[in-house]
Design a protein that fits this description.
It is built from eleven helices and no strands. The chain is an all-alpha fold. Helix 4 packs across helix 5. The N and C termini lie far apart (50 Å).
Length: 233
């Protein structure tokens, strides 16, 4: 009986690893142009070439990165809510199509903010330490907001600016949880991009989406619980 239980546990673990890797692989495939450009950046030290590729990535992101990431959030949403047994490819494509326009518009709004912020940090890094630190903090908050935006459009049928408002509100609710989620995801990004690059094809996108949606969904449940208690009173 104990051996059976161990084998069942191993099978369950392998099943989840397969789901995670498959979802992340699909995410990379749908981001193929951006994945290729990032790979070329990683193998060169030519600054003008890197800057040009970053500009191209910024232009492509609303069309590729945002819709694909939204689809990953749609899958992770099912997992967090206890619906693990879904057809991943079919559900990815369904969410991708349903949220494409909303993701695209969100990308058109958020990507320029990201690009300007990163560019400012790059140019101010050696000239104004205080402004550099301030901009890094702002970019960190923008990172948290972007994560919650994906969580909102994955979970709700809201118009674009309603989704932005919801993401901002939930970013402010329980700020410590928001900061924790942001720190965890930044660590995942840093480790994946600089230390253990094998994590990029295996779980990077899924891990970022999971911690972001888990944080958002727990806040949402807490808000609903408080509303129900207030109604009962």
């Amino acid at each position: 009986m104990q051996s059976t239980s161990i084998f069942e546990g191993i099978f369950k673990l392998l099943e989840w690893l397969t789901r995670i890797v498959l979802t992340n692989f699909i995410w990379l495939i749908f981001n193929l142009p951006i994945s290729f450009l990032l790979l070329t950046i990683a193998i060169t030290d030519d600054i003008p070439f890197i800057v040009m590729n970053l500009i191209i990535i910024a232009i492509l992101s609303p069309f590729f990165l945002f819709p694909a990431t939204s689809a990953v959030f749609g899958i992770v949403r099912k997992w967090v809510m206890g619906e693990g047994d879904i057809k991943i490819i079919k559900h990815f494509w369904t969410v991708y199509r349903q949220n494409y326009l909303k993701s695209l518009i969100g990308g058109f709004i958020l990507v320029p903010l990201w690009f300007i912020g990163i560019l400012d940090v790059y140019f101010l890094y050696h000239h104004n330490l205080f402004m550099t630190i301030l901009l890094i903090i702002i970019l960190f908050l923008l990172f948290i907001f972007t994560c919650y935006y994906f969580a909102v459009i994955a979970h709700h049928e809201l118009k674009i600016f309603q989704a932005f408002k919801q993401a901002l509100v939930f970013m402010i609710i329980n700020p410590l949880r928001s900061l924790l989620m942001g720190i965890i995801n930044i660590i995942i990004l840093y480790v994946s991009l600089t230390q253990v690059t094998v994590l990029i094809p295996l779980l990077l996108g899924v891990a970022l989406a999971y911690f972001a949606f888990f944080s958002y969904y727990n806040k949402l449940l807490r808000v609903k619980e408080l509303q129900e208690n207030n109604n009962e009173e």
